[in-house]
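Subject: mismatched residue count in predicted assembly?

I count 563 residues in my input, but I want to confirm that the predicted structure covers every chain. Input:
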Amino acid sequence: MASASQSREPITAKPTSKLRTTAATSTVSGKETPVRFQISNLDFFYGPKQAIFGMSLNIPVNKVTAIIGPSGCGKSTFLRTLNRMNDTIRNARFSGNILLDGQDILGMDVVGLRRRVGMVFQRPNPFPKSIYDNVAYGLRINGYKGRLSDLVEHSLRRAALWDEVKDYLHKSAFALSGGQQQRLCIARALAVDPEVLLLDEPCSALDPVTTAKIEELMFQLKDSCTMAIVTHNMQQAARASDFTAFMLDGKLIEHNETSKLFTTPSDPRTEAYITGRFG
Amino acid sequence: MSGVRLMWRKSLNVLMLTLTGVAALVVVSVLFMILGYLLWNGGKSLNLGFFTQLPKPVGETGGGMANAIVGSLKLLALAALLGLPIGLMAGVYLAEFGGKTFSFVTRYTTDLLNGVPSIVIGIFAYTLAVLPVKHFSAFAGGFALGIMVIPITVRSTEEFLRAVPGNLREGAMALGASKWRTIATVVLPAAKGGIITGMLLALARVAGETAPLLFTAFNNRYWSPGWGQPTASLPVMIYTYAVAPYDDWHRQAWAAGLVLLALVLVANVGTRLALSRGGAARGV
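Triage response: the counts match. Full output below for your records.
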């Protein structure tokens, strides 16, 4: 179990905190860290084509794990496996174990899994509804019975969007700028209070100022949320993450604390990639 | 040399622009010619009585087609009731669920059904809905029109659902929505405007059908109570009155044509306006 001496381990007392117990710890570079996701020997196939090869990785609790690598290396596939978004793709399958808090995700109800593991996509994808209804969507489909407006406000505040939209809650989400839409999508994901937030290149369609806002937001969310972010932007990985995993051709090449991976990579391929020699 | 080529290229450009432009003009002017002709001929015999009175016997002037207007609306209501739900759901199936082979077969069959001549649909409805009960009825007419509504609705629904970006579906599913929930709460609302427009176009299209009604709803010079009796409709009235040898009936036929076209145009333009305004407010 998590050792109490972990200084950056704020398990907050939330209604759902009983779900937040961790079942495993891992040692990345010597330090013991409680683990949210434990992935071992993951092989992933699109039909006959294998996209991920024997990947094992632990995603620590309430930290940001960045997954970097060149296009087509399987980063997004990996991320989408964690909340079983790939289930919708015909002929896609995987073998190996993925444990969320010690529980096999294949044994879980997929709806329950996705409630616990939220996702933010590359392009902002607000629903053609009002700002309010976008945030309330996840609560409504999960049959939330409490006061919706409180949670909508709370989620928008967590996504640092409340002040900008509080007077326009019933306007269309399409009226927002791209960066606001992406923060709305984050608020929408946060509304169901997920333990994990998967971010699939969340800033690739945004300008640098907006990107900075999202990164700051991620930093604030670390108190209560485990995050895994796929990014093409190495500076972003270096700035915003605690751990970084480098993938190449469907294989995990290196996984370490971000500061170490970017300063003293142990694999020559990692070094070549982060110094811009390929990819 | 290059000067000649340039001249040739420029004149070819002008020629093609002219040809395509003239074709476009023809398309537009056909509608306006029909409209003008109808207004000119139909407008003269159109009065309040046309909407409120029953047809008068031959030789008496005046009278109207109130029964045919109501009859057409009843037939369209039946057609909508039968055709729209089936068309909508089959369209959802094709766009969201369909397996490969069955979808292909369904899509192909739908296109074939769309191409079946309306008179053949009429015979089909006659065999199924008229022969067993031995009399014409509004039911039979609505059945025939409903069959014609189905393929148009299926294909337009499918098209508009496919136009909904896939990342909206993913967004909903990532929040834990089931496939059906995603379709019902995100995909269908996003495609709502297009789907409704498609449905109204389908109804507008069959509103003017005459052939399938000739031996299903038949005709009626009086009010048709309920749904089980022969029923007058505007297209069949137009046909009957236009081929009759009385000038007065010809004028009535023009008026009926004008009313029918006006109904279709108003429904069409009205829907588009309402949807585009509502859409702008929602940002769709």
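Chain A touches chain B through 31 residues (CB under 8 Å). Marking this ticket as 'not a bug'.
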